[in-house]
Each structure stands twice: as C-alpha cells, then as structure tokens.
Amino acid sequence: MWSRLNEWLWWERLWLPPNYSWTQLEDRDGVVYAHPRDMLAALPLALALVAMRFTFERLVGRPLSRWLGVQDQARRLVKPNATLEKHFLMERGRPKETQMAVLAAQCGLTLRQTQRWFRRRRNQERPCLTKKFCEASWRFVFYLCSFFGGLSVLYHESWLWRPVMCWDNYPIQPLKPALYYWYLFELSFYISLLVTLPFDIRRKDFKEQVAHHFVTITLVTFSYSANLLRIGSLVLLLHDSADFLLEACKMFNYARQQQVCNSLFIVFSLVFFYTRLVLFPTQILYTTYFESVLSWDPFFGYYFFNSLLLLLQLLHVFWSCLILRMIHSFTKKGQMEKDIRSDAEESDSSEGEAAQERPQLKNGTAPTDGPRSRAAVWLANGHKSTT
C-alpha cells in the first residue's frame, strides 16, 4: 500500500512536463539535480534556527533595544478576581456589555470598575515593546543576510536579468550547490516561523501571515521537487528585497526614532510597491503563465504552481492596501504612528471603552453608575456643587 501511495504521489505527470521522467533527472557524470529528499534537511535546520533566534534575542536583541532607548510602557496590575479571570479566559478578554453588567453585580463592583479591570487585564497580555523589537531585529538580520546572500548567488545567472531563461532546457537543469544551500536556508526559516507561532506576537493580520507562510513553504518545496529552482529563486529574492526594510522600520519605530523610521518607511513603501505590484505580476507571473509553456504543454505542476503564485499576489494586494492606509495617515500627520501590517502598540484603553466610560445620554444627562456619575447628573440638572 505504501509503495502504491508513493508511486501515485511521485507520478511524473504531476511533477514534470510531458515526455519527461525522473530517470532523466538522476545524477550522472558529476552532474547533480534537485531531488525532493534533499529538502528533509530543512527540518533539523529549522529547529536550529529556532534555537539561534532565542539566543540572538537574549544576547543581541535585548541589549540592542536598551542601547537604542526602547522603553516598555508601565502597566497597572489588576487585583486578583477569580470570577472575572474565568470570564476573561472564556471570552478572550472581551465579554459583552450585558455580561459585563452581570459580572459587576456578582463581584460587587460598578460597571466602570469592571470595564477597567478587563482593560488592564488585556494590557497585561499585550506584548511589550522590547519583545517586539527583539522579534523584528531577528527577522531583520535574517532577511538582510538572505537578500544579499541570494543576490550574490544569482548575480551572475542569466535568469536574474532575463526571467525567460528560467525555462531554458527545463526541466533538465543541473543544481548548483550555492543555490541549494540558499534554498534550504529559506525553507528552514519559514518552517521555523510556523514552529514559533505560539510564542510570536499575534497581530491583526495573523491569518494572512499564516497563509503566507504556508504558501511560501509549499512553493519552495514544490519548486525544488519539480526542479523549478530558477523561477523559485527569483520569487524569494524579490520578497527579501523589501522585507528587511520593513523590519528595520519597525525597529526604529519601537525605539521612537521617528525621523529614521519615516525615511525607512518611504523607502520600504517604494520598494514594496515596485517589487510586489510591478515586478511580480509583469515579470514573474507573466513568464510562468505564458513564456513557460512555449517549449512544452501545460501539466498539473504548471497549474498548481501558478495558482500558488496567484494566491501570493492576492496577499500582496492585501498588504498594499494596509500600506496605503499608512501612507494616508503619514501624509496627514507627518509621521508614522502605527507599525506597518497592523503591528500597532495598543493604547491602555480603546476608543470604544473610552466612550463607554463617558457616555452621553439624551437631554444632557449622564449615566448613574457611581458617585461621580450621580454628581454629574446633579450638576446637569442645574444644581451647583457644594464642595
């Protein structure tokens, strides 16, 4: 049964163009080709990267954050309350207003005191700036090394300057050791990102980030197995060109160095839009959709690979919309107040809760949920304070 499943999984019509077989990609006479089993080395390397990351954040990231003046916001601790803690865990820290009123009555608190307890409890769960800085610094180092390492590997290759050369004599394209190690390095990193998801900062675009990681891992693995290394290497290099600028922008934003952050934000935006919205569709998608089938007929791998690239492009459009919103805010206020890709340091109280703390009722009256509120009603009805 296992042999039959293995035979079906590696059916040549799924992975290779018509009239090509795996036997043509066997190593011979000193010529080495890509083999799917080579990617298994990415698993232990991913674990090694996880260990390197935690070591880097502790020995390099934290001292660097202190040197740059990153300061964590002081947060007030909440008084232990078993009833409120239970509902905090059940409702993910945001119970409904009706539940909030019931909880206030059960605990002998006012509604405002209960709201304040949940707000401060949520603040305790939010990551501090130092943690954000350490995470961004690790990704900055990786993307920077990966981009310039990949550039050195591909600089003298013809397909870097002419993407149509990715299909020259495909799939009979020998594997170069430097390209293999760079590819393995990239795959291991994205696997390590999935491994550390429970420990990473959960941002508003969490689902899109997870989808991006899965698409990238699938693209890298499939492109290597189908010997689509040339076009795959262009996709990786194109993405790394903007990612290290993004992480550098975050680092200076956390360090409150707005001038440097603003300058990097402008550069990042230009590079991101040019690489993801111009080069990617006009060079990568065009050559994979049209130029690739000039020498052979479409097969399953052609449709599968292009579907993943199209999904990746949709994610590019999503993040481009977020960056455009940031640019709009940047042009209005003259500085970047929030992190790119919705990586924002949340305030101690949200706008909705602030409005709840100071709600205005009709006829100029105010709510009556405590001594201060009763005093407000007294003054609103035309009486003067006696104090």
From TrEMBL:
Residue stretches making up the TLC domain: 131-332
Membrane topology note: Multi-pass membrane protein
Domain Homeobox: residue ranges: 84-128
Gene3D superfamilies xrefs: Homeodomain-like
Start and end residues of each stretch annotated as Disordered: 341-373
EC number: 2.3.1.24
Protein name listed in UniProt: sphingosine N-acyltransferase
PROSITE patterns (alphabetical): HOMEOBOX_2, TLC
Gene Ontology annotations of biological process type: ceramide biosynthetic process
Organism phylogeny: Eukaryota, Metazoa, Chordata, Craniata, Vertebrata
DNA-binding residues: 86-129
Signal peptide boundaries: none
The organism's place on the tree of life at top rank: Eukaryota
GO cellular component: endoplasmic reticulum membrane; nucleus
Spans traversing the lipid bilayer: 39-56, 140-160, 180-199, 260-280, 300-324
Pathway given in the UniProt record: Sphingolipid metabolism; Lipid metabolism; sphingolipid metabolism
Sorted UniProt keywords: DNA-binding, Endoplasmic reticulum, Homeobox, Lipid biosynthesis, Lipid metabolism, Membrane, Nucleus, Transferase, Transmembrane, Transmembrane helix
Organism (species): Hipposideros armiger
The reaction(s) this protein catalyses: docosanoyl-CoA + sphinganine = N-docosanoylsphinganine + CoA + H(+); eicosanoyl-CoA + sphinganine = N-eicosanoylsphinganine + CoA + H(+); a fatty acyl-CoA + sphing-4-enine = an N-acylsphing-4-enine + CoA + H(+); tetracosanoyl-CoA + sphinganine = N-tetracosanoylsphinganine + CoA + H(+)
